[in-house]
Each structure stands twice: as C-alpha cells, then as structure tokens.
Write a structure and sequence with these properties.
- There is one protein chain.
- This protein is α/β, with parallel strands linked by helices.
- It is about 45% helix and about 20% strand.
- The strands form 2 sheets. Strands 3, 4, 5, 6, 7, 8, 9, 10 and 11 form a 9-stranded mixed β-sheet that branches. The protein has a two-stranded antiparallel sheet with strand order 1-2.
- Helix 9 links the parallel strand 7 and strand 8.
Length: about 325
Amino acid sequence: MTRGLASSRIRMRHLRCFLSVANLGSATRAAEAMGTVQPAVSRSLRELEEELGSPLFDRTANGLVLNAIGNTLFSFVSNGMGQIDRGLEALQGQSAEAQVVAYILPNVVRVVMPGAVRRFKTLYPTVDLRFIATTGGGLQQYLRGGQVDFGFGRLLAVEHMQGMNFEHLFSEPLVFFVRTGHPLAGRGDLSIRDIDRHPVVIPTPGTIIRDELDRFLISKGVSRFSNMIETISFEFARSYLAMSDAVVCQPMGAMRRELSEGVVQCLDFARGAMDGAVGLTTPAGQTVSAPAQLLMQMIREEVRALTSASGGNIAESL
C-alpha cells in the first residue's frame, strides 16, 4: 500500500461497501443492507483493492474475513465514516428549518456567489439563503449583533477587526474605468491630474473601498477630485459611464462583464496601487452554523475554480 490516497480514485461508495462487507462478512448480505445488488458491491470492493494495490479480505468457507491490511484500513475508515455520518446527521437536523444570512459585497455577489450557491443548493435545496448585498459599511455591527452568519468581501479596517476573524481568499484591485472610446482610453502616461479633468464616480464615504481610494489620493498629493459623484450604486455607475466621459473607480469584479463585452476599458493608471484582500469574516470565538459553514466551503471551492480557470490570477476572472 504505497500509493497516496490523496491522488487516488477512491470514492465514498468504495469505503461504504468495504465497511458493510467487513461488518457482514458477505458481499450478498452487504448488498441487501445497502439496498443494492451483489455485483455492484463486489465491483466496488474489487476497484478499492485494485486502487490500493492489495487484497483486503481472505476468502474463506465462512465468507470474507479481513486480512491484516484490511484490519488496518477498517480501524481508520470506520472511525472516520462515523464522524462523517454524525456530522451529516447534525447538519440535516439543523437544515430542516435553517437559513443562512450573509453580508456579501456586490462585486463578489456578481461573480463568485452564483457558482457557490449552485454548489450549495445542489446539496441542500431546502436551506434558505439571504444576502445583504451592500457597500455601505456596517459589517462589524451585523456580525456582532448576530444578524448575519458571516461576511464575504474586502478586509475591514484595522479598527473594525477587533473580535473578528478574517480568512483571505484572494486579492482584488480597485481600478479606474472608462467607456470604450473615452479620450483617456489607451493612454499610458496618465496622471491624477488627467483623471481630475473628468467627472469621477467614486464610492461614498465610510465604505471600505472609499477609504482605500482616499489613502491613494493623499499619497498623490490630492485631497479630493474636483468633480465627484459619490454613490454605492454599481448600476448607476455602469449606466452613467456608458453615456458620458466620466471615470469610475470600482473593484475589478464590478465591471468584469462589461470588460468582457468590450464596452468599458481599464485605464493604465494606479495599477496595483489599491489591491485589497478579499475573504470571509466571522466573529471570533463563535461557532458558525453547519449550513453557514457549508456555504463558506462552497465559496472557497468556487474561488479555487475561478483561480484555476484564470491560470492562478483570480483578478482576471473577476
């Protein structure tokens, strides 16, 4: 048994068939107990032994008896499977009338959450999901007040992270966008003064992304833009961009669809200067409900899928 299980093709059905045969001593009796047919159990057992590179049972006149290797595997699998079964039972019990409430920023709602929710609902269609999707701030109050199970978005400012845990999933830049054909589009020598010659749509004060933008402006010796429109409405920003020479500062994910459609462009300005950590925020010292934990896991899996599809740079997927 020198092959690594992490790289094998072993499935849950293989292990469940193995346990049932080990407990009952017969593929026929195991099939009856599992509500299937004997050939299916025998096939699963044969595939497991082939995958492990060793027989697990001695075939005797009295039935199938675990050999030394089979006993070793049984001691681990029986314990692990018991833990899994108890976890699923607990989750199903909580899921009967369960609801997950999460505070989700709009850019990840648009890109990450559809795939994550599809994964979740495939497993637990009866669990209700509610998303508070806003850039208006206040995640820390929602979490401390128990109004949401977790948050998914950019890392809060240091002063708001007391009593919070943050799990980093990826980094996402704030970007200056313009419509395709805009006078600044395609230029490589832009300065903050060039941006300031146009109306600029920026997030409202008190939001995480506005704080990041303000720090950037101060680093450039500018306290504010001359002609500003402050809003947390991504829909307004996208529509206004299409009909004007405005410049919009938003997270990359907010405009990914428009970028792929070719109706907006990223300005070659401030690239990498406003990258922010994006991840899951939970209250420290509190247990997240089992359904909420499952949704968080689906978010992690969707982020990994997007990262893989983009060649390791999730910002390109967002």
